[in-house]
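stuck on this one:
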Amino acid sequence: MITKFVTSLALAIVILASLALPASAQGPVDLELGGEGATGWNIGNVSPGDSGTKTVTLHNAGDRDGFVTLWISDTVSGEGINPESETGDTSAPGELDHYLLFNISCSGLDSNISLPTTIDSLPQSASDTDYIKISPLNAGGTITLDWQWQLPVETGNEVQGDSLSFTINYMLEEFPPSSSGWWLPGRPSRLGTTDVRGMVGTGCVFLRSAT
């Protein structure tokens, strides 16, 4: 089985990802990312009850049909610099990861997770028993994926100053023989990484802080 692996970042606060990411040579499956959601996000002055949407396009530039597996990695939830301004738990780690909600919508979406949900409830590896998959992504085809984020109205001051960073991974795999089951992981043929960090300010503002 041939696999094309691309890593993008989709954080409700900040997203840093390149536009289309062509491989050095076109293969049987070749994943390219594009759209507004594949560039940097900078969302300021966010308060409880606010929400937004960013769009990512997934394009199979290869010559064989495949499917996409999505998972989260490298999650870090940091406590605020001035925890005395918060209420409730002021010890590390931070609380933002328990409140910020994410949803995904696109054609061909298949998941056993109830969405929207927090970042730690999304799949944490390609082989996680909780899964998010997009199928099919045919050769030459493009799928538009919407990431929706929301900071619920009931969110309290405990998230002020807290930070949250994570990586969203997209992996395009060629369909295996039908008897094997389409969900089996394949062999990665390309890796890409981007780091994202976001922060909630003391005035309920998301501040951009990325490397």
Notes: The mean pLDDT is 72. The chain is about 0% helix and 35% strand. Residues 3-192 form one domain.
